[in-house]
Amino acid sequence: MKSFDLVIVGGGPIGIACGLEAKKKGLNYLIIEKGPIVNSLFNYPSNMQFFSSSEKLEIDDIPFISKEAKPKRDEALEYYRRIVTSNKLNIHLFEKVESVNKSGDLFTIVSDKETYTASNIVLATGFYDLPNHLNVTGEDLPKVSHYYGNPHFYASQKLAVIGASNSAIDAALECYRKGSDVSLIIRGPEVGKRVKYWVRPDIINRIEEGSIKAYYNSIVKEIKEDKIIIVSPEGETTLENDFVLALTGYRPNFDFLEKLGIELSEDEKRLPNYNPDTMESNVTGLYLAGVICGGMETHKWFIENSRIHAKIIVKHIQSKQP
Ligand SMILES: Cc1cc2nc3c(=O)[nH]c(=O)nc-3n(C[C@H](O)[C@H](O)[C@H](O)COP(=O)(O)OP(=O)(O)OC[C@H]3O[C@@H](n4cnc5c(N)ncnc54)[C@H](O)[C@@H]3O)c2cc1C
Questions:
Q1: For residues 173 and 200, is the Cβ–Cβ distance under 8 A?
Q2: Which of 148, 173, 198, 312 has its CA 20 to 30 A from that of 140?
Q3: Does the beta carbon of 129 lie inside 6 Å of ligand 1?
Q4: How distant, in Å, are the alpha carbons of 41, 49, 57, 125, 293 from that of 165?
Q5: Which among 251, 303, 309 is the best mutation to test ligand 1's pocket, defined by most ligand atoms within 8 Å of the CB?
Q6: Tens-digit pLDDT string for the chain (322 aa)
Q7: Which of 7, 30, 40 to mutate to test the pocket of ligand 1 (most atoms within 8 A of CB)?
């Protein structure tokens, strides 16, 4: 069985930052990633543009050069991939961690390929794997997706986009511009306040001119093969429909965290218990890094403000070593 000072679960931007820092500080480390390098970013919409400027997405001050101030997804893939390959980081791709158990001071990590032991673990598994479900009849139909890729797919189709935040608004605007007949279904009274400041006026203008039909204070009651039924303060409305993009957010894998013994707050935020000075959770030697630290508050942590976790964690691990 291979043994490490540190095993990092998740090869997203923050897991990679942890691996790079561990390598620089001479720790014997391994990153385990269930998909390709930065799997979440790889699965983001193909034309996605970050709200952060490129220097704020940099790891360890390695320059991130992008054509525009705010980089596109493909540029971020280039950047993080080059960090992994140029620094020859020790990363196992397409390998999923299935369980982590602690016995004495040692963790045993079981993946779908191998078993390892480690003195320390970083969990940097993000939140993008588990969508928030609508829990309505028809949600499992093949025409419904919780992930948006490319607008071309929806051209000349009747598309319902559910949600009011950046992902939903970007999808609605892009698909409208590629010829979809877009209905936007929003649970609250308005387009989300956190929508990018340069995108919000665009969607509001498209709604006001009638190019995109918005249903405010509305929820989806049922999805059928060729229609959806929504409920608004005015009552029930049936819309003809070919595809549904339910972009209602994502959540960390709380079951996985609880199985590892990490305490979660009892309220709806489900905040994991960790010390912000060290990023160590209530399980000694088990650290949290990146967006997973926010529990259900998935907007609280992002690359820009969580890339510092890597240095904090590695410094603490080093301070414990003889
Ligand atoms: C549309 C969109 C736009 C965004 N724009 C910005 C922005 O402009 N600026 C910004 O700072 N942030 C932005 N974010 C947020 C940012 O992408 C995330 O905060 C960031 O990806 C978090 O990095 P992470 O490494 O914590 O998690 P992730 O990037 O989600 O990485 C987690 C990794 O863990 C892997 N994994 C999960 N479970 C396992 C397992 N059991 N075994 C092995 N591997 C596993 C996953 O495959 C994944 O690769 C955006 C997010 C979205 C959705």
A1: no
A2: 173
A3: yes
A4: 18, 14, 21, 22, 21
A5: 303
A6: 899 999 999 999 999 999 999 999 999 999 999 999 999 999 999 999 999 999 999 999 999 999 999 999 999 999 999 999 999 999 999 999 999 999 999 999 999 999 999 999 999 999 999 999 999 999 999 999 999 999 999 999 999 999 999 999 999 999 999 999 999 999 999 999 999 999 999 999 999 999 999 999 999 999 999 999 999 998 999 999 999 999 999 999 999 999 999 999 999 999 999 999 999 999 999 999 999 999 999 889 999 999 999 999 999 999 998 7
A7: 40
Element (H, E) at 314: helix 309-320
- Written as six digits, the tokens of 75 are 């540029």
Choose among 317, 322, 321: nearest CA to 19.
Answer: 317
Q: Is 291 in the pocket of ligand 1 (CB under 6 A)?
A: yes
CB 91 within 8 A of CB 37: yes
Q: Which residue carries 């930052």 as its tokens?
A: 17
Q: How far apart are alpha carbons 186 and 82 in whole angstroms?
A: 39
Strand partners, 287: 122, 280
Q: Ligand 1 pocket: which of 59, 125, 305 to mutate (most atoms <8 Å of CB)?
A: 125
Task: Estimate the share of the chain in helix, then strand, then coil, as percent rounded to the nearest 5.
Answer: 25, 25, 45
Q: Ligand 1 mean position to 81 CA, how many Å?
A: 14
Rounded Cα distance between 308 and 313, Å, is 9
d(CA 173, CA 203): 7
Helix (H, G, I), strand (E, B) or coil at 119: strand
What Cα–Cα distance (Å) separates residue 37 from each residue in 32, 92, 258, 279, 288? Answer: 10, 9, 26, 23, 19
Query: Is the minimum distance from the CB of 30 to ligand 1 under 6 angstroms?
Result: no
- Helices 13-24 and 73-86, interaxial angle, to 10°? 20
